[in-house]
Amino acid sequence: MSTPGILTGEFFINGDEASAEGAIAAGCRFFAGYPITPATEIAERMAKRLPQVQGLCLQMEDEIASMAAILGASWGGAKAMTATSGPGFSLMMENIGLGMMTETPCVVVNIMRAGPSTGLPTLVGQADVMQARWGSHGDYGVIALAPSSPQEMFDLTITAFNLSETYRLPVFVLGDEVVGHMSEKVIIPPPDRIPLVTRKRPQPSPECYLPFQAGDDLVPTMACAGDGYHVHVTGLTHDEQGYPVITAPVHERLIRRLVDKIRLNAAAIIRTEDVGLEEAQVVVVAYGCTARAAREAVDHLRARGQKVGLLRLITIWPFPEERIRRLAEQVRAFIVPEINYGQMVYEVERSAQGRAETVLLPLMGGAIHTPQEIVEAAEEYLS
Amino acid sequence: MKIRHRTLVPFDPQSTTRLREEQHGLHPDDVYLKPGRIPHIWCPGCGLGVVLNTYINGLKMAGLPVDRTAVVSGIGCTGRVAGYLNMDTYHTTHGRAIPFATGLALVRPDLTVTVFSGDGDLFAIGGNHFIHAARRNINLKILCVNNFNYGMTGGQAAPTTPVAARTTTTPYGNFEHSFNLPFLAYASGAVYVARWTTFHARHLVTAIAESLTRKGFTFIEVIAPCPIGYGRPNKLGSGLDEMKFYRENSLVQNDADPREADIGLKGKIIVGKFIDQSRPTFDQVYEENILKKFTRSA
After folding, report:
1. I need a labelling partner for A65 at 20 to 30 A (CA). Which of A78, A121, A189, B99 fits?
2. A27: nearest CA partner in chain B
3. Domains, chain B, with CATH or none
4. CA nearest A32 in B: which residue?
5. What is the pLDDT of residues B170-221, one digit of tens each?
6. pTM for this structure?
7. CATH match of A273-379 with 3.40.50.10470
8. Of the candidates B8, B11, B88, which has its C-beta nearest A230's C-beta?
9. What is the distance in angstroms between the Cα of B18 and the nearest Cα belonging to chain A?
């Protein structure tokens, strides 16, 4: 039986399945996961599809093991992914920290449901946004992408792999139950139209190679297992040769680089979708499934001639604080609908620096915003 | 916000011990040790030096080149073994060496992956991973150094601490039943199960070499002295005294029933090769039953 690696064509599939196809198109050949609603369909799709491309899908004993296994696979040279939802994402935090500290490229998909704890397993939430930013202990930079459609579940899973290979870290795809379970048309382009990035490998001889010394982009080259470089990889604070050094100066150097490789490259990483921002008096800031209701609301108001814009966050981490800062000088208010009791809104309010009102439209989970409530919130600030 | 950084101390390439030759190469086995990593961190009398040495000799006996091996470890005194070996080494999170190694071994069947860790790491926090990797028969070589306590954190009770033994968290004597590790490994599906003490260095080298050449999930328990963390509160004497104890109280019983291999505080220690069998490994079954259904067209 012969099956192509990339299923070029048009498909009517859900977001979870699209994410799995995106991973395969990105070159992912190792998946380790644990069943959890509403992300299970990703594991199921990978279990079916990965063997077709001579890849390996493994159901682990828990999410801790799943995260550990993809780090090991990545050091073996594979592109690797896991997928989960809130409770599993909590368990993964330990080894996400190891991935950050050891600069291990991989992708973690979190199809958000409502929490805390078991919460609403089958219903939508967006309350893992801050967990994605700060969930593992210690300081590190993160990249998280928030797809708003099954098509974006496909596209952004590929982007996540490319960013993880570029900046050498676990990259998060923060989907949500609505986007994960929604079925829509997904267009899968031919392989030659999908740009792929592969981690930089070392050039020098093993005798001269310093595995954690980075150039101007702050990202070191990666020698994988069996390459002959005899690298020591540790979650302990380590110097440029990879050896543990338990001192403040080495920690300062390492952690600053781990944070700065994202912070200083933020402009290249951040992607947004902008609708009518030029003359907007009110800007709706939204991401994930909530951005769909926000788009409907903004289109409705703009059709009536109202000066309303939408800033849809495609990249949610790093946060586009500079965009918000500049917009705050022109707008009266930011409207932030999100399916939580306020997470991204803190970033918006912080970046607005008091120059514009910030309005949270919270929803605790299990339902989505109506365009109407976003319209009503915006109207309060429109003359 | 503005950030006022303190001055960064730049990395000095001249300071790299990794690249410095003069400290390295005086001993013929230095090729197995990462340059500039010795002296190690272990206490006087600790058994880990013996285990490191026997692993190197096991590699030599098995004829395995360092470029075809990788070592993964968890956290603890034994977890530090990885950092001294001159090969690809991964010092992971506490208890998670086995699932990390699972991912590595499955995508790199050309490498022999050894997991080096302690009894607390592998059987308390990592116990679930151990039984599942054994059940799946992942091609991993597990070397568990059992010193009956958590040494790195200062001598707390472990799931291997014998009943009545004193540790800093069992000041009135441990009353919990302890794991019989060979029995646990056998019951979980390991294809090779052995136990030796650091006194049995030559047997241990042979066992390590054997396990490196077996396909599948192998398990060797190495009983090792921890005179600081475990010996002192239990009045076992120095590291040398513990070695003498092993000599006098070990019973070599190859093919012994693993169920009979419990260890008491000052009782006999049954050592030997208990299990040496074969069953299909995870990657063999995956290749045969799954991958062969599909051609390598993609």
Report:
1. A121
2. B298
3. 42-293 (3.40.50.970)
4. B103
5. 999 999 999 999 999 999 999 999 999 999 999 999 999 999 999 999 999 9
6. 0.97
7. no
8. B88
9. 7
